[in-house]
Amino acid sequence: xxxxxxxxxxxxxxxxxxxxxxxxxxxxxxxxxxxxxxxxxxxxxxxxxxxxxxxxxxxxxxxxxxxxxxxxxxxxxxxxxxxxxxxxxxxxxxxxxxxxxxxxxxxxxxxxxxxxxxxxxxxxxxxxxxxxxxxxxxxxxxxxxxxxxxxxxxxxxxxxxxxxxxxxxxxxxxxxxxxxxxxxxxxxxxxxxxxxxxxxxxxxxxxxxxxxxxxxxxxxxxxxxxxxxxxxxxxxxxxxxxxxxxxxxxxxxxxxxxxxxxxxxxxxxxxxxxxxxxxxxxxxxxxxxxxxxxxxxxxxxxxxxxxxxxxxxxxxxxxxxxxxxxxxxxxxxxxxxxxxxxxxxxxxxxxxxxxxxxxxxxxxxxxxxxxxxxxxxxxxxxxxxxxxxxxxxxxxxxxxxxxxxxxxxxxxxxxxxxxxxxxxxxxxxxxxxxxxxxxxxxxxxxxxxxxxxxxxxxxxxxxxxxxxxxxxxxxxxxxxxxxxxxxxxxxxxxxxxxxxxxxxxxxxxxxxxxxxxxxxxxxxxxxxxxxxxxxxxxxxxxxxxxxxxxxxxxxxxxxxxxxxxxxxxxxxxxxxxxxxxxxxxxxxxxxxxxxxxxxxxxxxx
Length: 605
Known about the structure:
- The chain has helices at 3-24, 26-64, 68-117, 120-123, 126-135, 139-170, 174-202, 204-218, 223-228, 232-284, 290-331, 392-399, 422-426, 443-448, 452-455, 459-468, 472-476, 497-510, 527-540, 553-556, 576-582, 585-598; strands spanning 352-359, 369-376, 381-385, 407-412, 415-416, 429-432, 515-519, 545-549, 561-566, 569-574.
- The chain is 65% helix and 9% strand.
- By secondary structure, it is of the alpha/beta class.
- α2 packs antiparallel against α3, α3 packs antiparallel against α6 (139-170) and α8 (204-218) crosses α10.
């Protein structure tokens, strides 16, 4: 970025951050500005009081008499101002802590609420993952630090200006030292801050890799395989190389900061003390008062530190503004799924009409789905089968409007899903995914999450759903029954894969939805359990439109109709019996399945 662009970005995002803080808590923001203003001007007042006291004392030593009343007045005034300054500093710290908590709460809520509005494909895009990674890099901390550094810069700048005004009144040559030395140092620190941020921004993908390597070694689900394959040394080695690369690059910036700060301190201190020597010799010959010398000596040392502090605060504030640009960038990301306004008629029937549906994943040149057209009648159970990669899961995600098609239409009860409110559509869809949720929550809550607004506090209804879904006995066998906390992250009891899947199916039935989508719903169950579950499922799903994806033909054969996909196209459609009779793709898949079930034949002796 050019320097002018940097300044514009700093001003624009800085204004956005200040408005964000003001909206977060207006009384605290106003109080913080008040206390900051007071602490900014108090030091100049104390310097003037000190100068006057020294001059009065020197005059009394020279025999002009002691003005006790004036000395006492100045001491009381100085003491009172010092107390107020200290209390204001404590109050500023108190207000800042409270405001920081409010900011932390608000920015975190804004991030997660905005993330919840974004579409599924956006989270599957690695470029968006980098945006999300940068937005999640301690955004509240960057906002808080920007606030504190901006206030610090304003405070120290006000103090520096007031002290410079006093020093200029004593010795105008002070301007010849500050004006040439300060701007180059500010530009140097500004450019260093930009380089640090740019390097950190470029690390977004590598930061995700570093967390990935750590998660592989620490995840309870993955650690058994990592141990068996002895992957830990390799994963830790890759993590170490990344972190060492970060460390070595950061050392360069530490050194550059040290050299720049040391050079500024050396040059300005040498020049200021040269000027102080001139004033001291001049005072000895009567050119300056003793108070002038005392104030100039103390203020000069303080001024150099203030100037350095102002520049440091400005550049750190600028650096954190750059991180806030990333936060704004994330909050400005528009959901890829357009929000419609149409509503379904009540009650919903679950009728699905798909016409000329095409879909291609971002970055891919080959369509996954190619001109699909079919209809599902209300209450009908339709199985989608086909080889891996045929587009089965993609199709049902499009029906549920988790993805947007390239072209074509999907009607739900005669209404194009693109024009429906997503809240309206999702309320009528119950979906069991291949990778279903294993929620760290009680067994009761795991079922209630299917329709949490209605069920979370309705234990009798939860138990009724569990009985209908045939998981009541499973849950009652847990240590605390329905109150058993499931998962190893916070609790002490977890379930087998098949048991988790049965809970996920019960959760799906908890929602009174017109459309039920089951994507490999019984992959963790044995054949007998699957048959028993699906037999019961037909009773539970009665009256609901159901789309089923399964590789098990014992389940598929129970569907009212079967749609066969191959390379993103519908190649067959019909009942189990008719498709076998036709001897096409479905029959070939079914016969292959039978041969796999029979196993290899032993040669005759």
